[in-house]
Amino acid sequence: SEWRATLLVRETACLTREDRQRVDELVAGNLSALEQLGDRQLIARIKTLAYTLDPHSVVNRTAKATAERFVSCRPAPDTMTYVSALLPVAQGVGVYAALTREADRQRAAGDPRTKGQIMADTFVERTTGQARAEDVRIEVQLIMTDRTLLAGSAEPAVLPGYGMIPAQTARNLVRGGPDTQCTPGPDTQPDKTVHTWLRRLYTEPSTGQLVGMDSRARLVPSGLARFIAVRDQLCRMPWCGAPIRNYDHIRPFHEAGPTTADNLQGLCEACNQAKEAPGWKSTVVTEPPIQPHAREPLTLQPHTVETRTPTGHVYRSTAPPLPGTGHT
Known about the structure:
Elements: H1 2-11, H2 17-28, H3 31-35, H4 39-53, H5 55-67, E1 70-76, E2 80-86, H6 89-108, H7 115-128, E3 137-138, H8 146-150, E4 157-159, E5 163-165, H9 167-175, E6 195-196, E7 214-215, H10 222-232, E8 246-249, E9 259-260, E10 264-267, H11 269-275, E11 281-284, E12 304-308, E13 314-318
Parallel strand pairs: 3-6
Antiparallel strand pairs: 1-2, 4-5, 7-9, 8-10, 11-12, 12-13
């Protein structure tokens, strides 16, 4: 099948063309034997042959893969998140085995939580150093209107790095209650300790923008960096959407570009480096207020950046709308 052909190509990518052909002959040359192998057995067979033919290249590939270990975080449905770690096999198996042993121990001691819940809570506790997974310290840049926080409004809030979350979930995060409105289960800890810092980030009603901040320094201060991260949420290049890694001067600092909220944008590392190549130019778009009807109030445009590429193409990037702005 196409999938099995993909496995064969993937597991032999480090070999020479001649060795890849030899593995192909040995593995796929006997179709009746191939059909009896599951995917894991097939991968094991390919790896064995690859190591036999060229052990040096396989060792080098393993060393390169070890150097590329990382941890990532991405949104999941229903206000959940995936925290994934790409680890060397011994470390990954060791982590999973330790979590499994702890879950089995607590289940044997009468813990009413499921094995999966105990493993998840233990993962949080051992990673953060907290006594309990429920004892959270919240300093996430949770953006919500005063109506959502204080008046029970249904306007959703924004959690940078995740996206929109329901209003009730945002209120629960602030007050330290359950993260859902479901009936509490046996794993609910009503007495959990929550340390919460509220960072007041209000939007200008007519513009939909956060209040500006500025600095005389070339390096973006931490407070201003947090402000840009909240405003932009993700890389501002229209085609990207990767997490923000750099805070870029739209008009370069060496061209007298100020370190202000208007002249800064959040970019991922790749887009920030690409922007510095010859032929790229970015400018802040300043357009007159929109006044569709004489009796309606003025509406100013949200923060907009225009990027011109070396090919002459022009793209515009607008800061995403925030709760309570009325923009779509």
